Automatic annotation (TrEMBL):
HAMAP family: NadA_type3 (MF_00569). Coiled coil: none annotated. It comes from Sporosarcina ureae. This is Quinolinate synthase. Its EC number is 2.5.1.72. The lineage of its organism: Bacteria, Bacillati, Bacillota, Bacilli, Bacillales. [4Fe-4S] cluster binds at residues 92, 212, 302. InterPro entries: NadA, NadA_sf, Quinolinate_synth_A_type3. Catalyzes the condensation of iminoaspartate with dihydroxyacetone phosphate to form quinolinate. Its cofactor is [4Fe-4S] cluster.
Length: 350
């Protein structure tokens, strides 16, 4: 049956009412408004992981975000709690850039090269298998809002880090902590090879050659044009953008940091934001007293985040009501046990 938008919204409201606290809907800031309006909690990936870890009463967690976030929620919740992703195609192209076989091969090579001097870290934007690999090897997960602290901690443990899978977050974070660019190598998972010109002894950071296809769309050329035409506009970007873009911007920080800066901005100030479109549009709507634009006029949506929409949310909720649950995200116990070590180190639960 084909429902109108308002029929779908009414149905979702009714199901939320019926299930009450048994149902919990976390929504990432990059989700569409049509979905976010039904979220019981919104946040960036760190906040949503913390919120899910703290929730003990919800039997059904319908995760409005992407696959790796739902896996993280499953790992951090109890066995009695079931996590669902309303559309299984809501993946993350960055997370898909590091698979466990490539990672094991890279690790073997790096161990031969550098011995036992490397600690692996992974951005939460990675599969549960990668988180488990990192957990088994003493490392931690990071998000964009705590990357600096976790990288600092890693250097108290080992001389070098392997940073998966986002080269940009890794490079920007390490550079911000004083690691020179020529002390950073890049691991190319397609060729199983290390790209590095410097002295082995000096290599401090090995960056996995992955990236976010959304944030890479904010370019140095976008910044040049803005500076030329609108020099007073303050440019703030997410650290998933390239190093050149981050260096040429006025400020950079995680999704939460960007939101906090906009919420604290003086009325009438002008901003260009380099992050996902749904969030930028929401900030524009919620702050009519500010002049906000996207750094790239094409806006840059995350297509996989956008796969979660009203029909998929309703379908997922109806399947729970009917006892025919679909799209259950269940990380196996062995993977979970190792991945939780990596997540706990980040959440400082151990
Ligand atoms: P944060 O929520 O950690 O800022 O990450 C941004 C992102 O790309 C989520 O996929
Ligand atoms: Fe992945 Fe980038 Fe989309 Fe985030 S914005 S889910 S990193 S593709």
């Amino acid at each position: 049956k084909h429902y109108t938008v308002s029929e779908m919204e009414d149905k979702i409201r009714a199901i939320k009412q019926t299930l009450g606290d048994k149902l919990f809907i976390p929504g990432h800031h990059y989700q569409k408004n049509e979905v976010i309006q039904f979220a019981d909690a919104t946040g960036d990936s760190l906040q949503l992981a913390q919120i899910c870890a703290a929730n003990e009463q919800a039997e059904h967690i319908v995760f409005c975000g992407v696959h790796f976030m739902a896996e993280t929620a499953d790992i951090l919740t109890t066995e009695k709690q079931q996590v669902y992703l309303p559309d299984m195609r809501a993946g993350c192209s960055m997370a898909d850039m590091a698979d466990i076989y490539q990672t094991e091969r890279a690790w073997k090579d790096l161990q031969e090269r550098f011995g036992d001097t490397i600690l692996p870290l992974t951005y939460v934007n990675s599969t549960a298998a990668i988180k488990a690999f990192v957990g088994r090897n003493g490392g931690a997960t990071v998000t964009s809002s705590n990357a600096k602290e976790i990288v600092q901690w890693a250097f108290t443990q080992k001389k070098r880090i392997l940073f998966l899978p986002d080269q940009h977050l890794g490079r920007n974070t390490a550079y911000g902590l004083g690691v020179p660019l020529d002390h950073m190598a890049v691991w190319n998972p397609i060729h199983d090879s290390l790209e590095y010109d410097g002295e082995s002894e000096e290599c401090q950071v090995i960056l996995w050659k992955g990236h976010c296809s959304v944030h890479e769309n904010f370019t140095v050329e976008n910044i040049r044009q803005l500076r030329e035409n609108d020099p007073e506009r303050r440019i703030i970007v997410h650290p998933e953008c390239s190093h050149e873009v981050v260096m040429k911007s006025d400020d950079d920080g995680s999704t939460k940091y960007i939101i906090d800066q906009i919420e604290a901005a003086a009325p009438g100030t002008k901003w260009a934001i380099g992050t996902e479109m749904n969030l930028v549009n929401r900030l524009i709507e919620n702050h009519p007293d500010l002049d906000i634009i996207s750094l790239n006029p094409l806006m840059c949506p995350c297509l996989t985040m956008n796969r979660i929409d009203l029909p998929h949310l309703l379908w997922s909720l109806e399947s729970i009501m009917e006892g025919t649950e679909q799209n259950i995200i269940q990380v196996d116990a062995v993977t979970s046990a190792d991945a939780i070590d990596a997540l706990d180190r980040m959440l400082q639960r151990k």
